[in-house]
Amino acid sequence: MPMRCRILNGLFRAPSALACASAPPSLFVPVERYQQVQASGNSNNSCNSNTRWFSADASTTKAFDRELKRKQRDNAARSNKAWRLAGTELGTDDSSSSSNDNDDDDDDIVHYDYFHKEMAARLVDRLDDIKRAEGFPLALDIGAGSGHIYRVICSDDAFEGEGGIGGVRKMVLLDSSAGMLGVDDDDSDGIDNIEGSHRCDAYKLHADEEDKLPFPDGTFDLVTSSQAIHWVNDLPKLFQEVNRVLKPDGCFMFSMIGGATLPELRIAMTLAELEREGGVGAHVGPFVELSDVGSLMQNAGFSLPTIDVDTVKISYPSAPVLMEHLQRMGEGNASLRRREHTGRDIFLAASCIYDEMYPVETEGEEHRDVEATAQVIFAIGWTPHASQQNPEPRGSATHRIGDMVTDHKGEK
Description:
Blueprint: E1 6-8, E2 11-13, H1 31-40, H2 66-92, H3 99-107, H4 114-128, E3 138-142, H5 148-153, E4 170-175, H6 178-181, E5 201-206, E6 220-226, H7 235-245, E7 246-257, H8 263-276, H9 290-299, E8 303-316, H10 319-329, H11 344-357, E9 359-360, E10 369-382, H12 401-411
Parallel strand pairs: 2-8, 3-4, 3-6, 4-5, 6-7
Antiparallel strand pairs: 1-2, 7-10, 8-10, 9-10
Helix pairs in contact: 1-11, 8-11
């Protein structure tokens, strides 16, 4: 099934579910309707009161509601199954329809995991750059979801030896969402039936990423995670657990959302709330800053950390479509400081502000899209081993840097 995300002028172009006859209700409201609501004074809208609703379950040590996040991801998995079932019915109900009609119906089906698939492919591409004779025979994927990393690993042979990409011959898929783990169980495209599954075996494990990992010390050669651990409250503990279950000279490779993600949505919601209520709530994040990732890895005992960043810009038909896609991806707001209720007028105002501040001009198209920015942090760390490069002991230098600089100037 082709990916529903295409490149447009350097941007991802996300599909819209608003044109689908079977699309679920979305937050989309035309600007004309927003103007009507403003003109009417919203006398019957209880959201206009100055009462601001926040989550009562606030914490000074935790940032996210893990139980809510699990429910969001389970709901996203059910939605994913419903969309695919709708696609199957559209393709088989009317046997007399032409093939072109079937193609049009299939185009109406929205696959919301386009971002997770792309980031998993970029992470495995970095794994493929590591040349290791024996590869990484046993791997663990934390927050595996529906197995995006596993699918990419199975797509090609190892550079050397047996297994899939990176020499992975068996992978344990661990996730706190049972719905995400089993989203493809009843589908012909499940992980047991994908092309290349003979290269790498898979085992699914339902467990919480924040708990102690249920494995003995020194079990895995490789631990991966793609777009999952940014919802973990205690990252230092998780990194220490990863270090524990890795063998010496084992590799920890992950990608996660950074703090500079969705600034457009954050600003639009902030301005809308300031205008309507005079205060702001938490709608995006908080996420880890790029400057903190290296310290987290080194404090957990990893050596030779390598960190890089991809800034991904995605275009959407409108801000409400962006919010809908975040929900269907399982990436909705789970902050403990979130507002329990956000009024419709705030969403309408935020949508109008977003459209005016962050448009994407597209040639040949009448509708003007909006852009959303995601900062994706990629990191690689290794458990210590004697074969790795180590700095010389302090005081063992035989030359001064000043002498080398002087000699260099003298050569000129």
